[in-house]
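User: Modeling request: complex.
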Amino acid sequence: MAKGTIQIDREKCKGCHLCVAFCPRHCIVVSQGINDKGYFPAELKEPGEDGKGCTGCAVCALVCPDIAIEVYRE
Ligand code: SF4
Ligand code: SF4
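Assistant: Request completed. Predicted assembly structure:
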Protein backbone atom coordinates (compact mmCIF):
# COMPACT_ATOMS: atom_id res chain seq x y z
CA MET A 1 0.00 0.00 0.00
CA ALA A 2 1.29 3.41 -0.91
CA LYS A 3 2.35 5.68 1.90
CA GLY A 4 2.00 9.39 2.10
CA THR A 5 1.43 12.31 4.32
CA ILE A 6 -0.24 15.68 4.17
CA GLN A 7 0.35 19.16 5.51
CA ILE A 8 -2.67 21.26 6.35
CA ASP A 9 -2.20 25.03 6.54
CA ARG A 10 -4.10 25.76 9.77
CA GLU A 11 -4.51 29.43 8.97
CA LYS A 12 -5.89 28.84 5.44
CA CYS A 13 -8.36 26.23 6.69
CA LYS A 14 -11.94 27.46 7.15
CA GLY A 15 -13.07 24.43 9.11
CA CYS A 16 -15.54 23.04 6.56
CA HIS A 17 -14.34 19.50 7.39
CA LEU A 18 -14.96 18.13 3.90
CA CYS A 19 -11.53 16.54 4.08
CA VAL A 20 -12.48 14.82 7.35
CA ALA A 21 -15.58 13.35 5.70
CA PHE A 22 -13.90 12.30 2.45
CA CYS A 23 -10.59 10.76 3.58
CA PRO A 24 -10.99 7.05 2.78
CA ARG A 25 -8.56 6.15 5.59
CA HIS A 26 -10.24 8.36 8.19
CA CYS A 27 -6.92 9.90 9.04
CA ILE A 28 -7.99 13.54 9.26
CA VAL A 29 -9.64 14.88 12.41
CA VAL A 30 -10.93 18.19 13.71
CA SER A 31 -8.42 20.12 15.79
CA GLN A 32 -9.20 20.83 19.43
CA GLY A 33 -8.03 24.42 19.11
CA ILE A 34 -9.11 27.31 16.91
CA ASN A 35 -6.98 29.12 14.36
CA ASP A 36 -6.54 32.89 14.06
CA LYS A 37 -9.84 33.22 12.14
CA GLY A 38 -11.76 31.39 14.85
CA TYR A 39 -12.28 28.13 12.95
CA PHE A 40 -11.53 24.64 14.17
CA PRO A 41 -9.10 23.49 11.46
CA ALA A 42 -8.57 19.95 10.26
CA GLU A 43 -5.40 18.10 11.22
CA LEU A 44 -3.73 14.84 10.30
CA LYS A 45 -4.20 12.11 12.87
CA GLU A 46 -1.31 9.76 13.56
CA PRO A 47 -1.92 6.25 12.21
CA GLY A 48 -3.64 3.96 14.68
CA GLU A 49 -2.20 0.76 16.08
CA ASP A 50 -3.33 -1.08 12.98
CA GLY A 51 -0.78 0.98 11.08
CA LYS A 52 -3.36 2.36 8.68
CA GLY A 53 -2.51 5.85 7.70
CA CYS A 54 -2.39 8.27 4.83
CA THR A 55 -1.80 6.73 1.41
CA GLY A 56 -1.18 10.01 -0.38
CA CYS A 57 -4.33 9.51 -2.49
CA ALA A 58 -4.93 13.31 -2.54
CA VAL A 59 -8.71 13.08 -2.18
CA CYS A 60 -8.52 15.55 0.72
CA ALA A 61 -6.61 18.08 -1.35
CA LEU A 62 -9.08 17.72 -4.22
CA VAL A 63 -12.13 18.40 -2.05
CA CYS A 64 -10.59 21.25 -0.04
CA PRO A 65 -12.18 24.50 -1.28
CA ASP A 66 -9.40 26.59 0.25
CA ILE A 67 -6.37 24.76 -1.18
CA ALA A 68 -5.07 24.34 2.35
CA ILE A 69 -3.72 20.79 1.94
CA GLU A 70 -0.45 19.66 0.39
CA VAL A 71 0.06 15.96 -0.28
CA TYR A 72 3.40 14.13 -0.21
CA ARG A 73 3.97 10.56 -1.39
CA GLU A 74 6.82 8.34 -0.21
S1 SF4 B 1 -11.37 20.75 3.35
FE1 SF4 B 1 -9.80 22.37 3.54
S2 SF4 B 1 -10.88 24.11 4.47
FE2 SF4 B 1 -12.16 22.28 4.77
S3 SF4 B 1 -11.53 21.52 6.82
FE3 SF4 B 1 -10.29 20.44 5.29
S4 SF4 B 1 -8.38 21.67 5.15
FE4 SF4 B 1 -9.94 22.94 6.12
S1 SF4 C 1 -4.06 11.96 0.96
FE1 SF4 C 1 -5.79 10.49 1.00
S2 SF4 C 1 -5.34 9.11 2.70
FE2 SF4 C 1 -4.02 10.92 2.96
S3 SF4 C 1 -5.17 12.28 4.34
FE3 SF4 C 1 -5.68 12.87 2.23
S4 SF4 C 1 -7.56 11.71 1.70
FE4 SF4 C 1 -6.63 10.77 3.53
